[in-house]
């Protein structure tokens, strides 16, 4: 028999479903609400006063105590499989040293030296952090192995905890290829598009490339992305992080699901994003941790581009797994409203992953709910740094938080 769970006594329910009569524009807010989950899927949403007639005898009733509930966060950009850390680099950066992509190579060395067991244990700890902070769907990139064997290991380990795995062999050119007598960047691209892609594609859903100075040129990135697409992978792009570049236009041209960072955008970049289905995924933790200028989310939103927010959790430029923190920074420093930031961290992230089953709470969607110890979603930005996530449910089942 189907299992039914009624979540009731919800003070403010953010559905991300603009059904008639709901508040908050795209947030689709229902007040004094209830939600029915059947076998882990949303089956009904409405006023709690109507729940008794709509849901006569649920198997379980979960009382939310008048608190706010939002969809589970969808973190569409993270790098969670790695060894070591870069705390010293962070301290030096806070003392005035600029961020450069080359720091990735120190993590590559530490990751290559770590055992599977060490990487798996650390990954499990990060996943626990995500869950406790309300993230129910997340993507993980490789990119800290940069050899055939090491990259295959990273995507394989990532696939143990999420279906959203991205092959990022084109993160930077490894040191052994950049030495004066090394084969060079183009030779490394040949490896990425050949033997490395063949080894990693069975464990991955996406291919990505860091189209940036100090990493890969637009032409090198194109070769990687087209090879991945030909191998059955969806396309994602790191672009326009450290300065103006061709990453955004390349992403739009190739029909990428998202282009991530988007810190330095021309008017042409913004117009291209607004006219496309490619999501501009902004990563507030990066600018917080590197002291670079923040992306201008207001400019993108006013132009009609679709915006997502993600953590970019990684040891070098954004060592945070907290989507609530990213929301607070986006509101404070990127000119987003609280409603826009919450939507971007839920429905926006789902669009960046081209998922139609998460990011909203409407019939047919996964019953991924986050209970906030607050009366409104606004408190995620209003009370920065306060642990407001009380309970987390994924597919209707308790995942993390208070018993």
Question: What features would you describe in this structure?
Answer:
- With 403 residues, this protein is α/β, with parallel strands linked by helices.
- 35% of the residues lie in helices and 23% in strands.
- The chain has helices at residues 51-54, 87-94, 104-113, 116-132, 148-159, 175-178, 185-200, 218-230, 247-253, 267-274, 284-290, 297-303, 323-333, 338-352, 379-382, and strands spanning 4-14, 29-38, 41-47, 60-63, 68-71, 73-75, 135-141, 164-170, 206-211, 234-239, 258-261, 279-282, 307-309, 369-372, 389-394, 397-401.
- Strands 1, 2, 3, 4, 5, 14, 15 and 16 form an eight-stranded mixed β-sheet that branches. It has an eight-stranded parallel β-sheet with strand order 6-7-8-9-10-11-12-13.
- β7, α5 and β8 form a beta-alpha-beta unit.
- It starts with a strand and ends with a strand.
- The mean pLDDT is 96.
- It catalyses: 4-imidazolone-5-propanoate + H2O = N-formimidoyl-L-glutamate.
- GO terms for molecular function: imidazolonepropionase activity.
Keywords:
403 residues; 23% strand; 35% helix; cytoplasm; alpha/beta; 15 helices; 8-stranded parallel sheet; 8-stranded mixed sheet; Amidohydro-rel
Topology:
Layout: E1 4-14, E2 29-38, E3 41-47, H1 51-54, E4 60-63, E5 68-71, E6 73-75, H2 87-94, H3 104-113, H4 116-132, E7 135-141, H5 148-159, E8 164-170, H6 175-178, H7 185-200, E9 206-211, H8 218-230, E10 234-239, H9 247-253, E11 258-261, H10 267-274, E12 279-282, H11 284-290, H12 297-303, E13 307-309, H13 323-333, H14 338-352, E14 369-372, H15 379-382, E15 389-394, E16 397-401
Parallel strand pairs: 1-4, 1-5, 6-7, 7-8, 8-9, 9-10, 10-11, 11-12, 12-13
Antiparallel strand pairs: 1-2, 2-3, 5-14, 14-15, 15-16
